[in-house]
Amino acid sequence: MPTPPPTGPLVTRDTVSTQLRLLGVETGEILLVHSSLSSLGWVNGGAVAVVRGLLDALGASGTLVVPTQSGDLSDPAVWGNPPVPEEWWDRIRATMPDYDPLITPSRGVGVIPETVRTWPGALRSAHPQTSFAALGTRAAEIVEDHALDCRLGERSPLARLEKLGARVLLLGAGYDACTSFHLAEYRIPSPLVRVGRPATGGGWETVTEVAITSDRFDELGHDFERDRPVIRGRVGAADARLFPVADAVAYAERWLPLHRPREEDFPHPAA
What is the DSSP letter of 49? Predict the structure, then answer.
């Protein structure tokens, strides 16, 4: 049987930029984008067209930021999707390539962030597992000095985005993808974990970190949208939401201790 034609809508670079402006995206602002390409419809030019549309909406003075996480650079002992045999663990740790911001691909965040990561002029932060990439006038200021023992906390691009008045754009993505909520986890009582990863220059290292999880972020997002001003609209077929990073962090700081307390989830590791 022949493949049925796409149902659409047909989305172009101009569609993206025009509908983002109608949503409220402003020339010159800083935008942290979480996205799903497939949610938009049939996009002529795919992720490249979407990135161009985002840059058009922001203008030459704006800055586009995306998560470029590489969670596969982690301890195979905690892998579950899929797990690997325990007898492989030591060999995997010994041979895992270390993080290189220029060549390490992003994973699990979609094709649009990966397209931004490889865009001419893009800059990427230094954390081997939770990096961000940025394009635009404030890119260097946002991604520089991402502390290697601070995945999504005060010494990460998230805190700089908050300080600079950036906004979040959920473009076909849900609140479970909203990394801004993680910054709140660093400001409330949270368990610590030992995080294993390849060390820069070779070998293996383990650092103590705040335990982060997106568990119940969908519920948090529902309540946030009910109680705080969130701009809603559509880009192509995708639901779009626009709100300040600072609003999301402040709301999560109050919501998480009440609805998802975690002080006793895990024992604090030895220093």
Answer: H
